[in-house]
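RESIDUES AND SHAPES:
===
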Amino acid sequence: MSKINTNIALYLFLIICLYIYIFNPYLPFLSVPIGSIKLLYIPLAFFLLQKTKKYRLFKNENKQILNYFICLFVFVVIRYFTGGSPLIIRDITSATIEAFFLPCYLLYLLDKCGISEKKIFIKQLLIISAIAALISISAFIFPSFHQFIRDNFLYIKEDSFLDLIEWRGYGIAECLTSIYSYDQALLCIIWLFYLKKNKWYTFFLPATLFSIVFNARTGIILFFVGIVIYFIHNRNLFYATLISLFLFFFSDHYEDFFKVINVSEDAIAWIQDFSTETDEILESGLTIESGTTSTLFGRMMVLPETPEQWLYGRGYSLFGKREELGVSSDIGFINNLSYGGIIYCVLLYTLIVIVSRKLIKHQEYWLFFLFLSFFLIIHTKGNFMPSAGILRLFMLIFYFFCDIDKKYKSQLD
């Protein structure tokens, strides 16, 4: 059984790196929205220059994924020279570094710290989740602390959504009203699968659920989907029943609970709207004529207009283009299609196929279903790839699990 390295400084450095990698809070000393994950590029560069055995093995084991990013980069460069947006080149470059090279460096740090078992690795991720959740709940309880975070760790444009809405955005992370909630939902679900070895996390569960609910409602959907996958995969009826009763009780009394802890009326109304829309969807499918669903599957469903646009795209994403073009879309699939057409979409989504096949090969079925479910839900509501933070977290878990399985099999041989 592996034990964590007693080098406290190295371990603390690992924890800081993991927090930055997963949540990527903005750098407080800059006036532009640059995520702190860019700081990790510095030790990564030294790591790559050393050409360690760990990197060579990692590159050989994941050559298919590296080739995928190279092909994707070549396409976006060609698309740029044929009238495409240069912003996608930045996104693909960031995705290549943060979803391929940085995980290799983090695996190296984990190995240096003696973390070579899945349950110990998951414990580190849950520690990061607990820290983030405590920050979120503290920001809610102490308004002065919340204001301090908003002033120093969040990039908030004047008259932007977060600038106008103060009862959301609790925490220190990028994209608090989307990606942060998705990350916390994923980590909370993973906790269920490793609950027996991490019962301590139960104490932080209310704070984690708070960080999900009061930042992005889509995180609630992801959490419930994860619970369904957990129920199907796990045959422990006691825990399944306990969690079901808790969720049933909470969903029936959440208004009273929120009033007790002094949640604002606007926040409660926001949750109620989500609950009402969910009920309508369950009762009538995707046919409702108002709310988030009608917006997504109505005016945001902007399809290509010509065969050339279907094949090769318009060269730009439609996200945030309403004032400029008169149309806009938050749907990841639509924005990918708009940028590079079917060719780009086939290239981009190849990663989903590669990762899924490998997870199935390693018999990580529960993680495969989580990965696929998160991709479909998030990319319908917003952006899962090429460079979203939730993809980074999935890729880190994917690499570690496959790396550990490979080491285990080599020991058996």
